[in-house]
Amino acid sequence: MKSCDFCKAENPEEAKFCRNCGKAFVPTDLSEDTEQRDARLAETSAEESKQATSSQPELRQDSASTTTQPLQTPAPTYSPSNPGPVVAPADASSLPPYGQQRAQPPVQMPVAVPVQPNAFTLMIHWLWDSFKHPSRLQRIPSWWPIVPVALNALVIASTTYAMLSHQYRSMSNLTQGINSFFSDIDSSYSVATSIPVTQLFKTAVLMLVLEYAVILMTYAGIRIMGDTSVTFSALHQEIGQKLTTLLAPNLMALVSVLIGLNAFAIFLLTVAMLFILVLPAARLAVASNHRKLDRTWMWGLTTLLAGVAIAVIILILIIGGAAETIGSLF
Fold it and tell me: What is the torsional sign of CA 86, 92, 94, 95?
């Protein structure tokens, strides 16, 4: 008989399972192997525990060193047998110069560029501004004041030429009769019935000379009064801006001649000429006097001298122009 290890019930020797609880009976040799195995496991665990206890300080030291010092991988050394990884060579032309970083391409942003007006447009704006505000001086190129002076001379010459041409056309019948009379006497003799176009440009040059004579006489009067602060360039611009106001009546006179209003054109031309001739006296009246003589006497003296000089110049121009005009007609 054998007893069950679990319920302690008696069972026959040949029984493989307990009749009371049903547990299987373990063979005797297997139980012995199990007991031997358990003994060996106990001995192995005891030895491992002893080794762990003896190596614990070293493990702590190793753990501290691993936490404080990072893991360093030794750099590979070059050798012919181990040349390292193959890297494609870079193009030297695409690399920046030595000591400089590769330049990054700038970001192109659209920028609105203001359109600058050209010199001709600026001059036209200055003429219009001078016509509205002739006393407001501005910083301009030194040759711009020549434009209003030359334009006035050209318009006055064109008006005079158109007026005389109209008069010659109205006298065409008389001149034709005179021409036929003289042709009977001398066939080589003839009288012109129109003014040559060259007279237009000659008259314009004469008017330009007269205007600059006014400017020069004004400048001479200012210097006689001892005022050295005014330069010829500044006076040129000042009078040039004032002459822009004469463009309106001169153009009106030219239009009046073209539509047959010669009397009104003559009136406008007379006003324009008086304005030009009065300019020296008006400018000398506001000039600074640095002489011992009284300001009024200095103004009168300089104005008289300028007027006489201008009258002489006008007389020379009239005589020379009339003689040339008469000579060109016969």
Answer: positive
